[in-house]
Amino acid sequence: MSDAPIRILLVEDDPALQELIRTILSAEGYEVTIAPHGESGLAAFERMQPDVVITDLLMKHMHGFEFLRLLRKSPHGHRVPIMVVSGQSYLPDKRKAFEMGADSFLGKPFRRHQLIEAVERLIHAVRVRFWGVRGSIAAPGPDTIRYGGNTPCVTIERGRDLLILDAGTGLRKLGICLQAEAKDRPRDLHMLITHTHWDHIQGFPFFVPAYVPTNRIDVHGPPSVEKPLAKVLRGQMDPAYFPVALGDMAASITVHEIREPEFRVGPFTVQAMYVNHPGITMAYRIELDGTVITYATDTEPYRFLLTDRHEPDEELAEYGGRRDQELVRFVSDSDLYIADSQYSPEEYESKRGWGHTCYTDAVEVALAARARRLVLFSHDPMHDDEMIDRKLERCRELAAAGDPKLEVHAAIEGQAIELRPASRE
Ligand SMILES: [Zn+2]
């Protein structure tokens, strides 16, 4: 994280509490700005773009829930960590605060160390945020409204650190939010691309920060089979497909082809591994201060591709099984495993060789790798919200039978999963 002091916006109408919280947090080196109500809080937020927001709920003029709603709705307030500090700590109030976009809740009265610890947790937590969760092609509309229709884009965030995974159509909204946050400040952005299939690069021409001359964007990924990565990115902006050329984007954009199995991107240590998908595709294992996230979308188990599931050829099955173990080792002990889970086992039979995994196999890998959380990702464009609900239920049953501690989620566009450092204890 950069050394500039962490800036906290405190929205609180009680002068005594304003002073108490400011005194406690200033003594810890934080820069605290006070807004006495929601409206001034929104204005102060836009002016200062703080690192953390702390808000009360019962305030004059604007209730804290309304403040949360308006802040989360605006692109510049979409990602900021927010803590609610309130005397209204009934369970339904807490639940509502989280629904409205709070990341943590501290009941009043609190002790000094509780406030400091809660702020520290908020700042140091790693968040994995989903901007696009759909495989193959964007599938927006009323049938996919809960899980989302955009193609892959995920961010790993901690404080001011940010790593972007894939540039599917979900990248468009991320770009709008990043630029709203940055205003005129230059940004250095890093992006890892798993492969050059449409659904993983199509958002790039719509990435607003790429049009800002003071920004710097580093794109890392493998080449395609026949073309370098830069040429593929340029190709999708050929005048036949798009009105602006890659070279006319104003930011300084550098494309790096991955040549090493391990490299660093800012504070993130990245391991890359080839996975089984048509063309050249990589999975990434990303570590940030001991928290491990593995992103392995678009891959198919070798043993099923190489041989018939029902009448396996022993030799090929054994070879395939060995290759599949490489993925298990790659995922091992991940705090979060984001996994291709495109098909049901029934669908897979007619889609063998298309390069995707069925969700029951994603659970098997997570169990064998002793992952702590599994996120079902790359939802099939043919799957509506109810089908994804059923997929999640089925995977949770399977996981519970194998390891009751394995948490299973289905990726939801717009949601973040928080990985607190304490989750490893
Ligand atoms: Zn693909």
What's this, in brief?
With about 425 residues, this protein is an alpha/beta fold. The chain has 13 helices and 19 strands. The chain is globular, with a radius of gyration of 22 Å.
Q: Tell me the radius of gyration.
A: 22 Å
User: Mean pLDDT across all residues, rounded?
Assistant: 94
Distinct small molecules: zinc ion
Name the CATH homologous superfamily of the largest domain.
Ribonuclease Z/Hydroxyacylglutathione hydrolase-like
Structural class comes to: alpha/beta
Number of DSSP helical runs: 13
Query: What is the CATH topology classification name of the largest domain?
Result: Metallo-beta-lactamase, Chain A
Q: For the terminal residues, how far apart are their CA atoms?
A: 23 Å
Spatial strand order of the main sheet: 11-10-9-8-7-6-19
| Low-pLDDT residue spans | none
User: Can you tell me the CATH architecture of the largest domain?
Assistant: 4-Layer Sandwich
Query: Would you report the number of β strands?
Result: 19
Would you state the CATH class of the largest domain?
Alpha Beta
State the helical fraction: 25-40%
How would you sum up the major sheet? 7 strands, mixed
Approximate shape:
globular
Oligomeric state of the chains?
Answer: single chain
Strand content: 15-25%
Structure description:
The chain is of the alpha/beta class and 425 residues long. It has 2 domains: 7-123, Rossmann fold; 126-424, Metallo-beta-lactamase, Chain A (4-Layer Sandwich), CATH 3.60.15.10. The chain is built from 13 helices and 19 strands. The protein has helices at residues 15-27, 38-48, 64-73, 91-99, 112-124, 171-182, 198-201, 229-235, 302-306, 314-331, 345-351, 359-368, 385-402, and strands spanning 7-11, 31-35, 52-55, 82-86, 104-107, 126-132, 153-158, 161-165, 188-192, 216-221, 252-257, 262-265, 268-274, 282-288, 291-296, 336-340, 373-377, 407-410, 416-419. Zinc ion binds at residues 195, 197, 277, 298, 355. Zinc ion (ZN) binds next to loops.
